[in-house]
Amino acid sequence: MDALTLAQLLRVGMIPEAHKISDELRDVRDTLRTRLHLVEKHTSAINSVHRVLEKFNVTDVEQLPELFRLQTDMHTERAGLITRQIKTIDQTLNGRLLDSEDVQRLLWIPGIGRLNAFTIYLEVDGMDRFESVKNFHSYCRLVPGASNSGGKTRHSSSKAGNRDLKMAF
């Protein structure tokens, strides 16, 4: 039954074509996403240290009991390792992306730094794939979703689109 419905929708052109990122940018985009994941892990490690300090209402790790000092040392060591990994990714991405004309054009826009320019360049993958500006804004999650029922309209944040572009903008 599902196959029949899909075949009929395809026949009348009701199934939109999905975009596939270009092969030369896929690995770079995935590396940038890995960097974002590492930043989240780094923040988590630092927050773990702060939670332990708050638990004992102290400001220095040396004031903690031995086992809690060990925990904070492990979190601090993990944060240091993640920082080195982030720097390695930054150096690699700078070498591949900074020379791009599109990235350089984005860097001229006030408020868009290097990482936001990289994110926008890699996640958009060409403006020509969007039929209109409205479609682009929707893909970036820059407009609220609307639910209409019974003459009432409710606006909510939409999960459709690209979360990385939403964060960049």
Structure in a nutshell:
By secondary structure, the chain is mainly alpha-helical.
Total DSSP helices: 7
- The gyration radius over C-alpha positions equals 23 Å
Distance between the termini: 42 Å
Structural class: mainly alpha
Mean pLDDT: 91
Fraction of residues in β-strands? 5-15%
Q: Main sheet: which strands, in order across?
A: 1-2
List the uncertain runs.
Answer: none
Order of helices and strands: HHHHHHEEH
Helix fraction by DSSP (H/I, runs of at least 4): 55-70%
Strand element count: 2
Shape: extended
Biggest sheet record: 2 strands, antiparallel
Detail the topology: elements first, then pairings:
Blueprint (H helix, E strand, L loop, with lengths): L1 H10 L11 H33 L10 H32 L3 H7 L6 H11 L8 H7 L5 E5 L2 E5 L6 H6 L1
Antiparallel strand pairs: 1-2
Description:
The chain has 169 residues and is mainly alpha-helical. The chain has a domain at 22-99. Helix content is 63%, strand content 6%. It has helices at 2-11, 23-55, 66-97, 101-107, 114-124, 133-139, 163-168; strands at residues 145-149, 152-156. The protein has a two-stranded antiparallel ribbon. A hairpin with a 2-residue loop joins strand 1 and strand 2. Helix 2 (23-55) packs antiparallel against helix 3 and helix 2 crosses helix 5 (114-124). The protein is extended. The model has no long low-confidence stretch (mean pLDDT 91).
